[in-house]
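S.,

Sequence below, as promised.
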Amino acid sequence: MESGARSLDRCYEHLLEGGVFVLTTPNPWAFHRFKQALFGDVTCNDEHTCWFDERTLRGVLSRHGFAVEHAEYVPPAEPEVTKAFASLGFRCLDGRSLLVRARKA
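The prediction came back faster than expected:
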């Protein structure tokens, strides 16, 4: 999205009352990104102009009239490693992408 705010406003306008908006975005805190950085192999999609974590995305969606109903990290980046982190409360390391389902409030 070139202009995230404007794009969210357009989605809001086109949805019926109570309509559902589903969004996925790369997870900036994914475990595999730390591994890439450690070995100097960070890859980035040039079309992605900003990063969102769950907390930030919830706030942005709320400011644009959406109520987040569900958020999860998918798919698990490295299940054997990230499961241990998730059990310690570091759920954000668990998936390559963040999937969010929000309803037009």
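The chain has four helices and three strands.

Coffee later?
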